[in-house]
Amino acid sequence: MKRTLYSLALRILGKDFNKQFNKICEIDDWEDFLHTKQEYLGRLLQHAYGNVPYYQQVHTHNADSSHLERIPILTKQIIRTNFAELLSVDLGRRRWWYNSSGGSTGEPVRFVQDGLFEKWSNATVKYYYDIMLDIESTVAMKIFLWGSERDVLEGTIGCRAKINNWLTNTVFLNCFRMTQEDMSNYVNAINRHRPRLLKGYSGSLFEISKYIEKHKLSVYTPEIISAHSEILTDWMRQEIESVFGAKVYDFYGSREIGPIAGECKEGRMHIFGFNNQLEILDRSDSPVREGHGRVILTNLHNYSMPLIRYEIGDTAIISAERCKCGNPLPTLTKVTGRTLNHFIKEDGTIIYGAIFTLLFALKDWVKGFQVIQEDFKRIRILITTDKINESEKMEIENQIRLLMGHDCRIIWEIVDAIPETRNGKHLYVKSLISKTGKYV
């Protein structure tokens, strides 16, 4: 019954993605994949050259997908400077909305997405779980150890989300702020609901695994654990798999592009090439056919604001090998360039680092920032800006104190540039506490 009601609700809301899912499932082999990808890329470029002022300015050739490499790399700064010119002139005819990047590196950037983008993203996720991992994602019992800034900062969850979770047999456990009591309750929820799929941020799955191990708790073994949003290191994977007794599958996606790649049962990361075009470039912008380089992405289905050859700020190792699982999609060996710190309070409460990046999202006066936890009750904010918006600054401070405690000291420091890591990246958040991987 729930499956039927869910399908009906999607049709009523105009969000049904069965058409896109069926198209993905029709891809049988490598030749089908290449033909499908080139078809979608060609359509996108044709649209961009005909309807998007920015691409009309850089248009120096026919709208041919074989010449994608001639289009300049799209950076976050270019998006900031040319935001209006990157919007399609037919935007008013589409169901669209604003979104913002929310990762661990680079500067936050605002962009526009639409209903077609959403349908393809949902279809891709369904393909990953249903086809690649053999979990019927709509009806399988699922627990998501996920983040909701609204739930943390406002203490509410929307009615629509509650209905969606009920229809899809999904239990949502908020990991943006996890007290010791929260983690105890989450373990109890896992044991009570006995999910086939446990999905969560890599760092949050790791933290709750450490909690279970530390307190010698028993926990139900799900069929599959899916790790998202952060680098899944070998030692994190080993800890999670050891505690839960289940294999962890890595998933790579972003707010800007949607689902990018997912790990199959053979342990290879398959690139969702029907949803995005992924390039790996070296420092001189030459393509890397096999090996390590910068990730450059083109979403194939966002016609409202096409992001073509977008430098997301990640690095990865691409493989030329076909996977023995039989899936025709190309593979990455590993995503190597994403890190995200968690903040830790004196009572052991874990605050997921991404929530701090969201506090600064869509703030036009913020050019760059880094939030540093120097002590349990001291936060330093490095910021590059021409002029601070005092009312929004106060709002940010109030939200940080809501997360870290009312007696938290917040220090603002205007700098000329945000310090880079050794590999040239900017970290949104950085904690100087608990570097040993143990609770303080």
Helical residue percent band: 25-40%
Under CATH at level 1, the class of the largest domain stands as: Alpha Beta
Number of domains: 2
Task: Supply the CATH superfamily name of the largest domain.
Answer: ANL, N-terminal domain
Q: How does CATH name the architecture of the largest domain?
A: 3-Layer(aba) Sandwich
Indicate the proportion of strand residues: 15-25%
Which structural class matches the secondary elements?
Answer: alpha/beta
Low-confidence runs (pLDDT<50, min 5 residues)? 435-440
Strand order of the largest sheet: 4-3-6-7-8-9-10-14-13-12-11
CATH topology of the largest domain: Rossmann fold
Terminal CA distance reads 47 Å
Biggest sheet statistics: 11 strands, mixed
- Overall geometry comes to globular
Number of strands: 20
Overall mean pLDDT: 87
CA gyration radius, whole angstroms: 22 Å
